[in-house]
């Protein structure tokens, strides 16, 4: 207890010696918050416009051609995504999403693209973003960028349907049994001169700890 009392005294003494200079001038904090709120409202308007007139309609056009595509429900404001479910034609689950975000000062608008595919059969651009100053957002440039990303995704997705593009590279993760491509596998390892490919670092670590438990699984 004595040590705590001494420490408390040292803290108090140090605070007493320091003269605190005000960070804000009179009324400056209030003016700053008014400005931030105005930017926030402006961002909300831009987000709603981009989502309803630019991003969502283009995602819907793409999704109309796939019976396995469904809109993700209960999404947060500023996000639109579709799931392309696992099926015989496309034996993978894929999510494509766009999100409109901002920086900490609400001075920039960031349109983000994300694509996730499991299992990963092909090389796929998983993340990209487009950034504008708050008052310099150009809807036509956003539309062109969104279309380019969706067409690139479509080209990659259809390669799964063609099959031959990756059939020679297909293999099985010996730990979890997931079908993956050698060229896009997250990690690889070898045992007794034989290569093995894995969907994740966790599977590779499990294999490395006890390879004999998995080598009987046919992976080639």
From TrEMBL:
Gene3D superfamilies xref list: Ribonucleotide Reductase, subunit A (1.10.620.20)
Domain TRASH residues, every copy: 173-211
GO-annotated molecular function: oxidoreductase activity
Coiled-coil ranges (or none): none
Any Pfam family matching the protein: YHS
Protein name: Copper-transporting P-type ATPase
Naturally occurring in which organism (per UniProt): Anatilimnocola aggregata
